Prior knowledge:
By secondary structure, chain A is mainly α. Chain A has 16 helices and 2 strands. Chain B is of the alpha+beta class.
Amino acid sequence: MWNQISRIKLKKLDGWLLFGVLALTGLSLALLVSVRSQGQDEIPYLFRRQLLYALVGGFLMASAAVMSPRVHFGLAYVLYGICVAILLGTVAWGSIAKGAVRWIDVGLFTFQPSEPAKIGLILALARLTTDKKYDPDRLTHLLRAIALTLLPLGLVMAQPDLGTSIIFATVFLFMVIGAGTPPAYILLLVSPVIAAITSFHILVFIGFILTLIIVAWRMKIFMGLFVFILAVNLAISAATPMLWNHLKPYQQQRLITFINPEADPKGSGYQIIQSKVAVGSGGVAGKGLGKGSQTQLMFLPEQHTDFVFSMLSEELGFLGASAALLLYALVLFRGFRAAQRCQGRYTALVCVGLSAMLTAHIFINIGMAVGLMPVTGLPLPFLSYGGSFLWTAMVSAGIILGAQFRWGDYTP
Amino acid sequence: MVEHDNAIRLRWLLTISLFLILVLWARLFELQVMRTDEYRRKANANSIRVIEELPGRGLIVDRYGRVIVENKPSYSLTVIPNEVRKSSNTLEELSQILQQPEDTITAELPRHGVAIYQPMKLARDISFPTLAALKARYWDLAGVSYQFEPKRSYPYGVAPHVLGYIGEISEAEKKRFPNRKTGDIVGKQGVERKYDDLLAGQKGYRFLEVNALGQIIGEMAEEYLPPRSSGKLFLTLDLELQFLAEELMAGKIGALVALDPNTGEILAMVSQPEYRLDDFAGVLRSDTWRQLQEDPGVPLLNRATQSGYPTGSTYKPMVLAAAIEEGIVNPETRIYCSGGYNLGRVYHCFKKEGHGTVDPLMSIEQSCDVFYYTLGHKLGAERLGKYQREFGFGSRTGIDIENEIKGNAPDKKFFDRKFGAGGWSPGLTLNVAIGQGEVLATPLQLAHYCGIMATGGLDATPHLFLKTHQEEMGLVEYQPQTRWVNIKPETFAFVREGMRRVVEGNGGTARRFKDPRWQLAGKTGTAQNPHGDDHSLFIGFGPFEKPIIAVAVVVENGGFGSAVAAPVAINVIKRYLETQIQPDSVSRLPDSLLVKLWQAGLYKTELLPVADSSAVYHTTSPITAQSATADVEPDLAD
C-alpha cells in the first residue's frame, strides 16, 4: 500500500478536475438544504443523507485515485464478470418478482447494480481493445468488443432500463473510436440506427442514404464494405416499418411518447412540460435558493433526483445553470485531456470511457430537463440526490485522477 | 503515426462532448433568457389557485328608495373533481346528500386538464336540508365544499319585464359582457341587463398557494381582495303606481306605460301576461322554462317596448297638428261627414250615419274618421311621414332597456318600397291618418308621443334609470335628454284643447271619466285587428294645465278604447295626481273661454305649460340637436 502511495506525485494531481467535482458536489448539497422538509428537522433529511453519500463518495474517489491503474487493469475482467453476474441475478430475481427490479436492498442502503457495471464495462472494454493481439482493423475483433458490450447492455435493457443501455452504447462508441477503429466500421455501426429512424419518412430517408453514399465515397471505403453497409442500411430501413406495424398500439404509443413526450401531457410529457416551466421561469437571476415554486411545490416530481437541474435552473437562474454547465465542461475537458496525457494506452482508454459515460449522463439528463431529450430517469453526475450514481461518478473521477499521478511510472 | 492518429481522435471526442454541452447551454439561453416571461406566466398559473368570492348584486329600488329587488343567501355545492373521483366513499356520500345517482354526478366531472384540480359548482341553490347534511359530514368529504352565493329575491314580484331576470352567462353573451366568464351571473333582460355593470359588483379573490396535488399549503393573505357589492340602483318607477297599474291590467293582454312627460321618467310600465321572476331566482327548472317558451301569451315578451300595434284614433291629434302646421286646417275649417269618404272606394267613418259638419276640435273630441280621411288625403304620405317621425314614431325612443323595436311609421318611401313607386293607392294614406293599415307603434312610443302633446312639444327620452350611488363613482344621475319638436306652440294649444274635450267636453269619447278635481286630456283609440277583436287604446295626460303624467294603454282584443283602455289609464293618472297634487291647487278655466282666447290670439301664453317652464321642466338645457329625423327609415325587420 505504502509502496503505491509513495509513487504518487502530488504535483501531478489534477487540481482542476478535483475542483470541478467538489464544486458540483457542494452545489448539490446547497440545493438540498433548500428542499422544503416536512418541517420538524433542523437539518433537512435529504441534505444529511446526501452529505453522508458525499463523504463516502469522497473516500471512494480518494481510494480510486491512490490505487495503481495496474490494480484495475489486472482485475478488469474479474470486475466485469462480477457485475454481469449481479445484473443477471437482478434480472432473474425480477422475473420471479414479476416486476422491474433495478435496486438491491443491502440493509443500510439500496444499491443499483447497473452503476458499477458501467465501470466494469469500461475497464473490460479498455483491457480488450488495448490488448496487443487486438487489431482495430479486423472486423472480428470489433465483434468481440460488441459482444462484451451487448451482454450487460441486454441485461439492463431487460430490467428494463433504456437509459443505462444508451449509456453503455455511448461508452462503447466513444471507446472503439478511441481505440482506433477505422471510420468505415464506425459508419457501419452508427448508420443502421439512423436508417431505422429515418425510414419513417421517405424524403428524409433518401436524404440520409445519399449522405451515407457521399460520406462512404469520401472515406474511400473499398467496394465490398461499401455495398455491405448500404445493404445493411436498406435492410434495416425496410424492416423497421414492418416491425412497427407488428407492435401493439399501446407499444407504438409508448415509443412515440418516448421520442416526443409532449404528445402526452398527462404522462411523461407532464414532467417535461413542468420541467421547462421551472427552468424558464427561473429567468436570468433565478428565484433564490429554496424559492423555486415549481420544484418546491412538487409540480415537478423527482425534483431532487432526475430533475435536479430544473430545480437548480429555477432557483439560481441562467447564471447558476451556466456556472454548472461550465463546471461540467471543465470536468469533461480534464477527463479527455487526461486521456491524452496518459502514458499507457489502457489508462488512456479508461479515461475516454469514463468521460464518455459522464458526457452521456450530463447530456441526456440536462437535455431532458430542458425538453431536448426524452424522459429516461438517468441521474446527473455529482448533482442528483442518491448514493449509487454519485459513487460511480466519484470513483470515475478518482480513476481519472489516479491515471495521471504516475508520470514516468509504468502504467498499462 | 498511430500516436498522432490517437491524439486527433481524442480531440474529436472532446470536441463532441463540449459541443453537446454547448447545445444544452444554448437551449438554456432560449428558455431562461428569451422565453422567461412566457414560462413565468405558466409558473404562476401553476401554483396559485384563485378562489372567487361573489358579491351581492346591487339592490334595485324605486324613485323613493323602496326596495323592488334584493338578495338572499343561497349556497352552491362545489367539488374538486380530482379528489372526489379518488374516493368511492366520497362519491357515495355525495350521491346520498344530493339524492342523485353516482353516475349522474361522475358524468358531470371533467376528466382531463387543469379543470380537475379546480373547484367546480356541482349544484346551485341547494336546499337547506341538503346544506345541513353536507355540513354534518363536511370533514369526511375530501374535496367537497360549499360556496356562498347571493341570489335575487323579489319581495313584490312586480315589473318583471322592466327588471328582467338574471342567469348564467351564455357563450353568445360573452361578446356583450367581455369581462365575464363561464358560470358568471348576468342580467338577461330589462334593467338587470342594461345596468349589469352597475349591479354586478366586484368579485372578491382569495389567492391560495397549492401544490401539484391541489392541496392548499397556504394563503397569500395580503393579496386578498374582498368582494364589493354595488350601490343601490334607483329606478324612475313609482312602486305604488306600478302596483295599481299591474292590478288594473291583470287578466288583460297588453301593456301600459306611464311617464313624466317633463323628464321622460317612466313611472310605471306593465306588460301582460307576466312571468314570475322568482322562477329565475334560483335554478331555473327546465320544465318551467319550456312552459314559458311555449305559452301562447308569450309572457317573456315585453309588450310595452317589443310589440307594435296599430294606433287607431290615438294618431289623430298628431295628424291634426300636422294639418295645422301645413296650413290645411285652421280653426275655421269645417268638414262635412256623411259617414264616408270617397276615394276610389268609400272609406267609412266609424259612425255610419255621419257626424254632420265637423270642426277641428270636434274632430278630436268625437273622433270623426272622415275629417281625418280628408286631412290624410290632403297631407299625402310624404308629409304624414314627416310628422309621424317628429312625434317619435318609426324609431326607437331610446329607453334604457334592450331590444326595443322601431315600429312602423309609413311614409311615401315606405309605400314606394313595398308596392313600387306609383304602384299604390293614395287610399293607403287615409288609413295612416286614422292609425290603421301599416301603422305600428309600441305602447312606449304612444306614451312618449302623448308626453309630447302634454308638454306642448317637449320630447324627453323615456328612461328607467334615475340615479345610483356607487363607491368608486359617487352619485351618478341620469342626464336628461330632451329636445323641442319642430311644431308651433299655437298648434299644440289647439290640439291639446281637442284632447281636453275628449274627457271634458260634452261629446267626448271619454267624457264619463271627467273628474271635478282636475282637468284631464286624452284620446281614445280602437284599432282594427285583422286577427280578431279590435285592440283598445287610450293615451291621456293630466292635469291639463301643467301635466305631470302621460299614460298610454293598449289592451289586445279589448274592444272600444273608451271601454277598456281608458278606465285603466284614467285610474292610473288620477291615483298619481292624488299622490302628487293637492286638488284645489289646480285652477280651472271654462272651456269656451279658452277657445275664445285662443281664437283671439291671446290664449297661448296662458295655456301653454311652457310658460312656467322653470318649475315644471327639470331641464333648462337648450334644445339638443339630437334629431328624430336621423333615424327615419322604418326598419321592417323589427
